[in-house]
Give the backbone structure.
Amino acid sequence: MMAGKWQAGNLPSELTSLIGRRNELDQIRRACRRSRLVTLTGVGGVGKTRLALRAAADLRPEFGGGAWLVELSPLDDGTLLPHAIAEALRLTDQTTRPMAEVLAEHLFGREVLLVLDTCEHLVSACANTVETLLAAVPGLRVLATSRRPLEAAGELVYAVDPLPVPAADATDVGSQDAVALLAERAAETMPGFQVAEHNEAAVVRLCRRLEGIPLAIELAAARLRDFPVEHLADRLDDRFATLEAGPGEADPPWHQALRTAVGWSHELCEPAERLLWARVSVFAGDFDAEAVRHVCADERLPAADVGLLLDALADESILTWLPTGAGERYRMLDTLREYGAGWLRTLGEEERFRRRHRDHYLALAARGVAGWLGPGQMSWYDRMIGEHDNLRAALEASLAGKDGEAALELAGTLAFFWYGCGYAKEGRHYLKQALALDGEPGPALVQALWADGLLAATQGDADGVVTRAAQCEAAAEPGDAYAAMCVKALRSSAGVIRGDLPQAMAESQEAYITRWNGEELTLAGLLALLCRAHALTVDGRVDDAISVLDDLRALCDERGEQSMRSHGDLLRGQAELSRGRLDAAVTYGQAALRTKRRLHDSFGLGLTADLLALAAGAAGRAERAARLLGLAQRIWSTHGQAQANVPAWVAARQECERQARDTLGDDAYRVAYHTGYDSDNDAGIAYALEPEGEGLPNGGSPL
């Protein structure tokens, strides 16, 4: 794959200032230039992530392919590590190829810095994946954070120590990093707070007792609005002395200091705050207040109190408040989540609240599938993307507990998410595990088999589609009309992939006959109509194809559905192109492109870019055609299998390439093609959406 210009990356902006660490940053930057794999190690809360992000931001100009953060703390399944990296890179691939192979191909020729954050629970998977990628991609460098080394080949380990604390005889204590951090964070919650003669001794004692660990200091600073610093220092002294009386197990000593600080902060919480801290530990990534009410509230923790308790935990730095466009969300640092999870186990409530977490996200998935084919589709897209970490956690809890029914139901219900939000490969990963639990025949098994067959179709896996169709038919109860439609849609899809037009037509017949019978709109029924329209177009029966697509569009418009409608617009553009109506082909293609851009549908983006290239070529605009072909290939390179290997689509693109090259000549074609390929996706799509009225033989009107 040819290298192109790439976006700068996804590093988050800093929300607070970084105190001190100049020497460490200099050493880390030099280490990254010297070694292709650098791992920052140290106790939780010592500041590994913060240092890695600042170092990566400083190094970013040296990497033409950008610096990319991959957050691993929400991930429990190491086999999904390559998927998490791809997701961070905004790389979508729906083929059956191993994701590590796809990553290596995508990154080859680029200079990229990957920041793998929080690797300690996935050390083996991280080591294997990093070694594979580094061997395959010469321009790749990895900066990892972990409580222990990855022990991968060529790894350079940099141990992150706590912040310096004042010595016993220090005079200028305010310049010491630990004291400076406490003062700055305290001033954020208590404007005007300063280290002065009246409190200096207590501040020094507090920072020394906390061993300079940034997380511990920030927890203490958050409490200074409620207690004088002298009071906090005394309480911490008392608690630490009690702990020190027991057997020592901390080496280095600040491990015990961190446990002390977190436990001390826990003690300072009100009982209801401690209970909520424990219960929200079942969430992965970030979460909203509504989810907390559903999962965590009961007679001991009334739902009406949850909002105020969340705010209190955020004020105390136990939770991080995250304002987003979709509303307020919260996140918990790993160290604090682990403490809460331990407390939940001590209370004997871990299994109960993990089950409640799973049930909440199963209910969310059920609401999502009910709302997906309707006017709230875009809102559901945003919501499900935001809940991805928790959906994974719910699935992994079901699989780990060998709860076949729940795993099948959740993985199958999420068919709309796997298919509509671009996670076909991950969906098949979970569906394979759920189906291996040997669920009983019935609706849940039928839905899971249909979901896996649908995803196999997006991957161009005709054999997998046919296998799942047969299994779906066998698992269905007699007279199950929904299952029958799923089976027919799968078999029609297999016909499209194999170029078997009679099969595609025959298996889509029932969907066509019953399209206006008033029954609930389903993905299966709409997919069958799309397969029928494709087969009719390829067979030369374009007017019949357009009639099917007009009906599909009307069905979608009645309900406000946009995703499948945009598939219909794409096929309508192909149909119009086949009968020489270039203006209409462009109009429908650009309409499809706008929706597919909103849904980040790489499969649809690739096909629409191909369609617009074909239309430009047919209009005699060879340079535009070559540029759009380059854009399409760039998109396909992030998706995987170009044109899903559908024979008609592959042949049409190849013919467009030949004609553009013949018209322009090799050199001019190459320049135009690389202009499209080397542009980033946003710029390329903006170009594809430019008006095309000029030069169209039948006077097309631009959008």
Q: What stands out?
A: Residues 1-7, 242-251, 693-703 have pLDDT under 50 and may be disordered. The domain at 381-559 is CATH 1.25.40.10 (Serine Threonine Protein Phosphatase 5, Tetratricopeptide repeat). The longest strand covers residues 140-146.
